[in-house]
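anyone else get weird line breaks when pasting these?? whatever heres mine. first is seq + tokens for prot A
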Amino acid sequence: MPHMRRTLLTLALLPWIAFLSPPQGWCNLVRPMDVPALVRDAKVIAVGEVTDIWEQVPEVSQFGGCQSGRLMQARLRVLRVLKGYGMDELMFKFFRSNLMNCGLIGVSKGEFGLFFLRESDDGLIFVSHEYPKVIA
């Protein structure tokens, strides 16, 4: 029961955490974080640190309204799994835009947080490109 209380408390605090710590360089308006939708749509919710990032495809012409960018892959060292299957590390893919005001937020090596991931044909991806993670 204490584990469930901590999980519910963590999920209840997520909107506050997100608004108190916006990503660097982010100045556009974004939709408010919909925590119930993130939790519902996630196959995996994990706390961890991004240990490696590499370019999957050198240049992508268009993705989600952005004109150009790169398909990236990252390795996450998992410290705790809140939903989904447990493992020590996992890989996920994301799009890194060449334009800062595109609305897609990626991650960088060394970032620590609570990640919401879903399955796609290409493997795990972010549930929301606007909220790939929140600081844990």
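and prot B, same format (seq, then tokens)
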Amino acid sequence: MVWLTYKFSLDCRDKIYEGVWSYGQALWYIIRLSFYGSMVCAVFVLLYSFLVPSYFEGMNDLVVTTLEQLGDSGLYTDEMIEEMESSLRILLTPQSYSAMTLLSNFFCGIFTGLILAAIVKEDNPFADNSQTENNE
């Protein structure tokens, strides 16, 4: 995904901005790109949950089994496990899972954007020359 974001950013810089792109413009483009990509991922999670409704039930059963094994090992009390199970029933719904997917992908995109924007930015080479000529 990072490579695709890099290639899309270079393509946008060269075709739309004619090779001159500030850090802020690059960052804003990458943030928007990551937001749209996060939205697509969240929609696919929702669609998948409607096409395969047993997916989240199976995930919930797997987590409950793991929690029961942790309870048997003595790491957690039964009350703690019951609290975790009730919290997970809320978190492992299609809506909340897609919201978590959206937010996590978006924040990863922002972090990636902070780095990639510095790489793909291309300052105007004539801007520096005109300022130095005016100072002389």
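btw re prot B: Residues 23-51 form the longest helix (29 residues). The CA atoms of residues 27 and 115 lie 9 Å apart.
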